[in-house]
Specification:
Its main location: membrane. By secondary structure, this protein is mostly helical. It has helices at residues 2-12, 25-43, 45-77, 82-92, 94-97, 99-108, 117-136, 142-173, 178-215, 217-229, 243-258, 261-275, 281-290, 299-324, 329-351, 354-357, 362-389, 397-425, 436-448, 489-494. The radius of gyration is 23 Å and the shape is globular.
Length: 495
């Protein structure tokens, strides 16, 4: 393996023979090809293909397309009010809240002798059926539409958890390639999201929101392909009678960890910091497109705005990784929370039309707003992700990390529902936006509140341990699933 990496490094430096690229532009073109080839040889091509499909196409491209199409579907097909669309957008994300369940299933319960492949197939079929149901029905009842959207979300969540387990397995067996695998995941997801958001508006304009749902059955079908071709060791003579015991042991271990003061306090902060940042995105979307005095953006423009947001999010990741990752948790969270609150004032300037009085066009201002807001939001999220990875006790790292991520999703769900309630109370409707600025102002002030809750966050920096020593030395039971099943250890290792 080391020889393979040295060979690739040697080639990338432009010192190879037999017509390999030397330096400059050719080297930039060939470097990713050699990198992919090295990963394919060391980790098997089916794994690399799986990461690209799940992270890049299913999550990145798929979520980029589905966000815009879902917003237009709720507004134009289901004729929902902004407050209703806001609440339902939270309901669609419920499958992500039960990520620990998907993680336990893929770790503990093999199907027909395989731990990963059947779950990819199931996730893919779930996505295909749900997307085609939305696309082919002329007038689908709201309840069935929500069920289909939730099923599609569940398909993506199950595929996400399963590919994370595969990444973990390879990170443990090939520790020197853990960073390369994490880079592969991040690059695939970022590029996929950028392409998805860029195409979303044009596709909604050309084929409508329901037509886009039909297109989204293709990424789901590719997930089925991953389940068919993935190289995986067959499990023989698995004791299914002990599944209940394994579930019970894992649940007890997670509960024991959550009762620790060093764990529940940061978890409470993460939940409150997300829940208090009220989500009024649907109100802003309706104002973008329907308000008489608003910008009246077209589908293409909306998609391009979100694509710029994806670029801002990527810049936030790069900025944190290269500049901010070694700062103490409290310091970086203090400043990012203040900046996150201040960024909410940009929406207020837009809705009050102050930008036009200053001579700044709507589109230019919204693009800046989206890029800055998502960049700051990503920088705020990264230390929370690192903090979560350091709260995981030894032996249950993967499942406990999934549990922490589900707590974060509960926070985002609370944010969406509270935002929908606020829009309803302020009577923000499809045609009435007079009080939208009040909702934005309340949201901005609430974003500052978590600054006063930073005492819940450890004073330590990201490079030191947080948990007590005894929790870092928990031993796995004799019948525990092998270390390959630590679902999210790749994220932990990369930090």
């Amino acid at each position: 393996m080391e020889e393979a990496k040295e060979e690739v490094s040697f080639q990338l430096e432009g010192e190879t023979q037999e017509g390999k690229p030397e330096k400059g532009l050719k080297n930039l073109i060939w470097a990713p090809i050699y990198w992919f080839r090295m990963l394919g040889e060391e980790l098997h091509w089916s794994f690399v293909l799986g990461v690209v499909i799940v992270y890049g196409i299913s999550q990145g491209l798929g979520v980029g397309l589905s966000r815009v199409s879902t917003q237009y579907y709720m507004k134009d097909e289901q004729k929902l009010q902004p407050s209703e669309a806001q609440v339902f957008s939270g309901i669609i994300q419920i499958p992500w809240i039960v990520k620990p369940l998907w993680g336990l299933l893929t770790d503990i319960v093999p199907v027909v002798g395989y731990r990963r492949r059947p779950y990819f197939v199931f996730a893919g079929f779930l996505g295909v059926i749900s997307m085609l149901s939305l696309s082919l029905h002329k007038k689908l009842d709201l309840g069935f539409a929500l069920l289909s959207l939730m099923s599609g979300s569940a398909g993506i969540a199950i595929a996400d958890v399963t590919i994370d387990a595969c990444v973990t397995q390879n990170s443990i067996s090939h520790p020197s390639l853990a960073g390369d695998m994490q880079s592969l995941c991040g690059v695939s997801s970022s590029i996929g999201a950028l392409v998805g958001f860029s195409l979303s508006g044009f596709l909604v304009h050309l084929v409508g929101s329901k037509g886009v749902f039909g297109i989204l059955s293709i990424p789901a079908g590719l997930v089925i392909l991953v389940g068919m071709v993935l190289k995986e060791t067959h499990v023989h003579n698995f004791a299914y009678r002990r599944v209940n015991e394994k579930f019970l042991d894992a649940s007890k271990a997670m509960w024991t960890a959550l009762k620790c003061r060093d764990v529940w306090r940061p978890c409470l902060y993460m939940y409150l910091s997300l829940a208090l940042s009220l989500n009024v995105r649907e109100g802003m979307f309706y104002w973008y497109t329907d308000a008489k005095g608003g910008p009246s953006f077209s589908q293409e423009v909306v998609g391009s705005i979100f694509s710029v947001g994806a670029v801002g999010s990527l810049l936030g990741v790069l900025l944190y990784q290269n500049v901010l990752k070694n700062y103490p948790f409290r310091d970086i969270l203090f400043w990012t929370q203040l900046l996150y609150g201040a960024s909410g004032l940009l929406d207020l300037i837009l809705v009050l039309r102050i930008n036009l009085k200053l001579g700044v066009p709507d589109y230019f201002f919204v693009v800046i707003d989206e890029g800055i807001s998502l960049m700051i939001g990503r920088i705020k999220w990264m230390p929370l992700l690192v903090l979560s990875s350091k709260l995981c006790p030894s032996g249950i790292e993967g499942t406990f990390f999934a549990l922490l991520m589900s707590i974060d999703h509960v926070g985002m769900l609370s944010s969406s529902w509270a935002g929908g309630l606020l829009l309803h109370i302020l009577e923000v409707t499809r045609t009435q936006f007079d009080n939208l600025w009040i909702a934005i102002l309340i949201r901005t002030m609430l974003r500052i509140v978590p600054v006063g809750l930073l005492f819940l966050v450890p004073r330590s920096d990201p490079n030191s341990s947080i948990l007590p020593t005894e929790m870092l030395r928990i031993k796995k039971g004799d019948d525990e699933v092998e270390s390959e099943n630590v679902e999210m250890a790749s994220l932990i290792n990369s930090t």
